[in-house]
Amino acid sequence: MTILIFGMGNIGKSTVGELLVRKIGYDFIDMDTKIKEKYDTMLGFQDEYNDQYERDELRAEMISSWIKEKENVVIALSPVVYLDAYEDFFEDSDIICFDLTDRAENIFKHLEFDNLLHIPQSYLNKHKAYYM
Fold first, then answer.
1. Has residue 16 got a pLDDT over 90?
2. How high does pLDDT run on average in the chain?
3. Are 1 and 24 in contact, with CB atoms under 8 Å apart?
4. Element (H, E) at 29
5. Which of 45, 53, 51 is nearest to 85 (CA)?
6. Start-to-end Cα distance in the chain
């Protein structure tokens, strides 16, 4: 069985995934971590694959390979734009997909930029409306 956790950035996909695997004994894969390991930063991935559809297709291929490698796995996904790249996962009876959501103000409290940029909290607070 595979569990895919969808959701926007900073929603808690990794946190929920890690808590879930502790309870059910599955392996856990954080897609953002895997991409950062390969490209050094998320920006490296975006620079190499600057077309959003191409990135979603590549992510879908990555997921497929992880599913083939591991029988029981929970995968926290990077935010996606083109859901049709993931269509096969939605139709597979051995895959459970769910989407985490929360109120914008809660997500804003946890907003991070993963060491790509150092943005002071004062700036984020000043521009809160933009991020929400």
1. yes
2. 82
3. no
4. strand 27-30
5. 53
6. 35
Token code pair at residue 55:
């990135």
Where does the pLDDT of residue 114 fall: very low under 50, low under 70, confident under 90, or very high at 90 and above? Answer: very low
**Which has the closest alpha carbon to 70: 6, 27, 127?**
27
Who's near 72: CB < 8 A, 6+ residues apart?
1, 2, 24, 25, 26, 27
What's the CA gap between 16 and 63, in Å, rounded?
18
- Which residues, at least 6 apart from 25, have a Cβ–Cβ distance to it below 8 Å? 72
Residue for token digits 């935010």? 79
Angular region, 97: left φ>0, alpha ψ -120 to 50, beta rest: beta
Dihedral sign for Cα 91, 92, 94, 99, please. negative
* Nearest in space to 32 (alpha carbons), one of 50, 5, 51: 5
